[in-house]
Design brief:
Layout: H1 2-30, H2 32-70, E1 75-92, E2 95-100, E3 118-121, E4 131-145, H3 168-196, E5 207-208, H4 213-216, E6 224-228, H5 237-246, E7 252-258, E8 264-270, E9 272-273, E10 280-281, E11 284-285, H6 297-307, E12 314-318, E13 321-322, H7 326-334, E14 340-348, E15 355-363, E16 380-382, E17 385-387, E18 392-394
Helix pairs in contact: 2-3
Length: about 400
């Protein structure tokens, strides 16, 4: 009865995995917009944070591993991420031994714990003592040395290469190597960043969300934020986002704004929760370039069919007026009461590197705020008519 029971357990786990996958797919498809606009960006940010933490741990564990090897300590496992094992690789006399998800797919009479999904490739040679693993839980990592225990006392083993059998000085060197490697890595990264530099987005208003606190405060594309809550040194666009996200509910944040005409104005803005956004924001959009962004092949084809433009094209003029910045383009478009605008763009041939001018007619659409109009800022103004979601009325 043992074999049927083992098969039953294996297929039960497979069925459970299929059910969980089906539920996840159903929830995503049923709430796709919310998933795309809220959960996906939030999950990606959490994933990046975990990867950053894991990178720090990886460098830390590399310190333990290298010094342990140099000290002739037997290292049994070096793992990126935490168990259960997703992939394990170790050199055996028969070649490189791979094992995949051994805990999920075990097999009988398997003292080494290789599991059903295991195989050996490569040439024969001397067996290695360390298994290099990737864990299934994408967080942190660890190094396992012979005789070492993270909880409780270390095991008493006769092997002279066991960690507890080394001198106090060697053990101190192995333990402290992790922190030392983190310090060395931090110094190296800082030196590299200062030598090469990093691009930071300027604290410039690229645009404002319709009806947002920024729009109500009168901010316009091209305005430069030169002071936030009394801070004026080394400001970038990230400081604007952080000021909004970290402000208390109902708190008004003081901004000093330099307009495109050179005048300076002090304004106060209260951040608010916006549709589809996980954090409270001012409604200030980041500055954009005049170069069409790279997109997927399907989106590029749709863009070309609609506008005649391609990713990489750089807009030079709109309706015969040269533009140098994105906010100049936005203002021309906002004030163009015509069905379409004429755009002139530069396109560089990827092979010959020759630049040619592309002229395109792009139709305009009226962007109305969804929901009931709460104020004049929620109304679309076209000449003497104010257009709202609920009604049309003449302006007095």
């Amino acid at each position: 009865m043992s074999e049927p029971k083992g098969l039953l357990n294996k297929y039960s786990r497979l069925m459970l995995l299929v059910i969980i996958t089906g539920v996840v797919v159903y929830l995503i498809s049923d709430n796709f917009d919310k998933f795309k606009n809220v959960f996906l960006p939030m999950s990606w940010n959490i994933f990046l944070a975990l990867m950053g933490f894991s990178a720090v741990v990886f460098i830390h564990e590399c310190g333990h591993f290298i010094v342990a090897k140099l000290s002739d300590i037997k290292v049994e496992t070096f793992s990126i991420f935490l168990p259960p094992v997703l992939l394990g690789v170790r050199r055996t006399e028969e070649g490189l031994r791979f094992r995949i998800l051994p805990k999920f797919f075990p097999k009988k009479n398997d003292p080494d714990g290789d599991g059903l999904l295991s195989f050996t490739v490569g040439k024969k040679g001397r067996a290695g003592e360390t298994e290099y693993r990737i864990g299934l839980i994408p967080l942190a990592g660890y190094v396992k040395m012979l005789g070492q225990e993270d909880t409780g006392a270390d095991k008493q083993i006769d092997d002279p290469r066991a960690f507890p059998n080394k001198s106090i000085g060697v053990r101190m060197a192995v333990i402290s190597a992790g922190v030392i490697f983190n310090v060395i890595a931090a110094i190296g990264i800082l030196m590299t960043v200062y030598l090469i530099g990093i691009d930071r987005m300027p604290a410039v208003v690229g645009g404002v969300r319709h009806g947002s606190p920024a729009a109500q405060a009168g901010l316009q594309a091209g305005d430069e934020i030169i002071e936030i809550a009394g801070k004026s040194d080394n400001l970038d666009f990230g400081n604007i986002l952080m000021a909004a996200a970290l402000s208390d509910k109902g708190e008004k944040v003081a901004l000093k704004v330099k307009h495109t005409d050179g005048s300076i104005e002090n304004v106060t803005i209260e951040a608010e929760q916006m549709s589809g956004m996980p954090l409270r924001l001012f409604g200030i959009l980041s500055p954009q370039t005049l170069t069409i962004a790279e997109v997927s092949a399907a989106d590029a084809n749709a863009l070309f069919a609609r506008t005649g433009l391609l990713p990489g094209d750089r807009i030079k003029s709109v309706n015969g007026r040269d533009v140098q910045t994105n906010w100049e383009l936005e203002r021309i478009v906002q004030n163009a009461f015509v069905p379409a605008v004429t755009v002139l763009a530069e396109r560089t041939d990827p092979v010959s590197k020759k630049v040619k001018l592309i002229e395109s007619q792009i139709r305009l659409t009226l962007n109305l705020e969804k929901g009931q109009a709460k104020s004049k800022l929620n109304l679309g103004n076209v000449y003497s008519i104010e257009i709202g979601r609920a009604s049309w009325r003449e302006r007095v």
